[in-house]
Design a protein that fits this description.
By secondary structure, the protein is an alpha/beta fold. The protein has two domains: 243 residues, Aldehyde Dehydrogenase, Chain A, domain 2 (3-Layer(aba) Sandwich), CATH 3.40.309; 216 residues, Aldehyde Dehydrogenase, Chain A, domain 1 (3-Layer(aba) Sandwich). It is built from 17 helices and 30 strands. It has a seven-stranded mixed β-sheet with strand order 20-23-24-17-16-26-27, sandwiched between helices. The chain has a six-stranded mixed β-sheet with strand order 13-12-11-14-15-29, sandwiched between helices. Strands 1, 4, 7 and 8 form a four-stranded mixed β-sheet that branches. Helix 2 packs parallel to helix 8, helix 3 runs antiparallel to helix 5 and helix 6 crosses helix 16.
Length: 575
């Protein structure tokens, strides 16, 4: 039975906002833009209300998993997959639509998947790790063609599983395909640069990048395809073998790709595992056979998992973790530009992005006009179902997220903050209407905790040291945005900030792209660097073949190269 939600309507307060004894902002009295009753009406009344072109043809009940090159039938326990999209049941109740079901694996299945990956790698002697870069590129191109053929179903599943808008779901798919092609091009260039010998101080050497071994890959639900493939694709193409655990939400969208993985890559190169992470993942790490852990998730989980490996120094970790990116809005900022960028930065995909702006630090001198314009523009955002044209705010996939967000609001109110926008924090089913909270201060949950949802905390400042101190004392160090027009002030801010975060954005929101730029973080926000080129380096290590510069060595190396005796010792060029 799908979860059923019941709610009663409640009017929010209308108020003046005071700060340090002075009225900062007057929130207009008037009709409520979004309250619980209005949010309830945004869900389809029944399945027939959904436009036919966006309906699921039928629930997808995943009946197999990919292990050792076979789609093995699954006859064990299954878990229902429910969409954040609900339908009305009458009497103020909403019911989540069932999208399908997935296997609930156990330690036994994870053992089998790990054995297959270990056997395929075969201590570096396997078919995949010993292939030439050109051969692996050919396999990846074959996979990409097969993946593109599944675009329509995958895009539809992204939309249904995590309620990402249809245009953004399409964009995620297209960006992922472009990322794969860019990775192929980067490997081609990298391999060509290494297809020569170096002679230094009487030593002949050839240096290439080689795989690390067995990779355990786990992606996030917010960008289940793109962020997962940002680690999975470079790990694969560099010659590693993988055990892949799909995210908890956005799991079925990988089902159409299992056949593509099976057909494009040798047996055992990629294997899938399902089931409770707390049960299947620690076992694999405890075995000591995992060489690389790649996780997009929380630092708490990453710290726990890394401790499971018996030889921590042998485990390479490539991690994308927590972030609490701030925007510092200086008194000379272009308010219209700052509002536009901060609105997108804080509420795109409901704020469920690691790069989202999760704290706005606004100078007291422009706090009133900034907040007034921000709330005006927020009020224009369309709330609804992901297939609706122009929609911005959609249902949330995490069942407990609405409760947590509501607790954050109650905690902030109890400590003197107010919700500035009409209807802010209204809840119905899986919808949460964005809330702008002011003034947020130390001690509130919203001050340090990553809300990962549609709440916009706003903190005032007068002395720039207050804004700097917030970033310096944060446990997170991914990015920051600065809005202003004074070159001298911005220049002086950049110098300390680049030593606290890994990307400083000037007059624009925090973001990951373009994918050729490095993507990483300091402190608890990341380990390792991801970009098209950096990811290839993250999932490989430089290895070298060396010989003395003698006639005998030269003849031997020439024989190996001329007659293609080795895939490593080679001067072949990939076109």
């Amino acid at each position: 039975m799908s979860p059923v939600f019941r709610y009663q309507n409640a009017r929010p307060e209308h108020f003046n906002v005071h700060y340090r004894g002075k009225r900062l902002l007057r929130v207009k009295r008037g009709s409520i833009m979004y309250d619980t009753a209005r949010l309830m009406e945004l869900f389809p009344r029944d399945y027939e209300d959904i436009p036919p072109e966006f309906r699921l043809i039928a629930p997808i009940h995943q009946s197999s998993s990919l292990i050792d090159g076979e789609l093995k039938p699954w006859q064990g326990k299954v878990r229902p997959v429910r969409s954040p999209i609900c339908v009305g049941r009458g009497n103020g109740a909403l019911e989540q639509i069932e999208v399908g079901s997935v296997p609930v694996g156990s330690r036994e299945e994870s053992e089998e998947a790990l054995r297959a990956a270990v056997a395929a790698y075969d201590n570096g002697r396997g078919e995949w790790p010993t292939m030439t870069a050109a051969q692996r590129i050919a396999c990846m191109q074959d996979f990409t063609r097969r993946m593109v053929a599944q675009k329509r179903q995958i895009v539809n599943l992204i939309m249904w599983e995590i309620a990402k808008t249809l245009p953004d779901s399409e964009k995620e798919f297209d960006r992922t395909v472009a990322y794969i092609q860019a990775t192929i091009d980067a490997l081609r260039n990298l391999d060509n640069d290494n297809s020569r010998f170096q002679i230094v101080e009487g030593t002949i050497g050839q240096i290439r990048r080689t795989p690390l071994g067995i990779v355990l890959c786990m992606g996030p639900y917010n960008y289940p395809l793109n962020e997962t493939f940002a680690t999975l694709i470079p790990a694969l193409i560099m010659g590693n073998t993988l055990v892949f655990k799909p995210p908890k939400f956005g799991i079925l969208l990988f089902y159409p790709l299992l056949e593509a993985f099976r057909s494009a890559f040798p047996p055992g190169v990629i294997n899938t595992v399902y089931g409770p992470g707390a049960e299947v993942v620690p076992y694999m790490l405890n075995s000591g056979q995992i060489n690389v852990l790649t996780l997009i998730g929380s630092s708490r989980v990453a710290d726990h998992l890394k401790k499971q490996h018996p030889k921590a120094h042998r485990l390479r970790a490539i991690l994308g973790l927590d972030a609490k990116n701030a925007a510092i809005i200086l008194p000379d900022a272009d308010i219209e530009l700052a509002v536009k960028e901060c609105l997108l930065g804080s509420l795109s995909f409901n704020g469920q992005r690691c790069t989202a702006l999760k704290m706005l630090i606004v100078h007291q001198a422009i706090a009133e006009p900034f907040l007034r314009r921000f709330n005006e523009e927020l009020g224009k955002l369309k709330v609804g179902m992901p297939w609706e044209k122009g929609v911005s705010i959609t249902p949330l996939p995490e069942p407990d997220k609405l409760k947590y967000l509501t607790e954050c609001l109650e905690d902030a109110r109890a400590q003197g903050a107010r919700v500035l926008n009409e209807g802010g924090g209204a809840v119905a089913g899986t919808l949460f209407y964005p809330a702008v909270v002011f003034p947020v201060k130390d001690g509130m949950k919203l001050y340090r905790e990553e809300q990962f949802g549609p709440i916009v905390p706003v903190m005032p400042f007068e002395d720039i040291e207050t804004a700097l101190e917030y970033v310096i004392t944060s446990d997170h160090g991914q990015q920051v945005s600065i809005f202003g027009s004074n070159a001298d002030q911005i220049g002086k801010l950049v110098d300390p900030l680049v030593n606290q975060v890994c990307r400083v954005n000037i007059n624009c929101q925090c973001q990951r792209g373009p994918d050729v730029f490095p993507f990483t973080g300091r402190k608890d926000s990341a380990e390792g660097t991801l970009s098209v080129f950096d990811a290839l380096r993250s999932f490989s290590i430089r290895s070298m073949v060396a010989a003395k510069q003698t006639e005998v060595s030269q003849r031997l190396l020439d024989d190996i190269v001329q007659h293609h005796k080795s895939n490593f010792i080679s001067t072949r060029f990939i076109f």
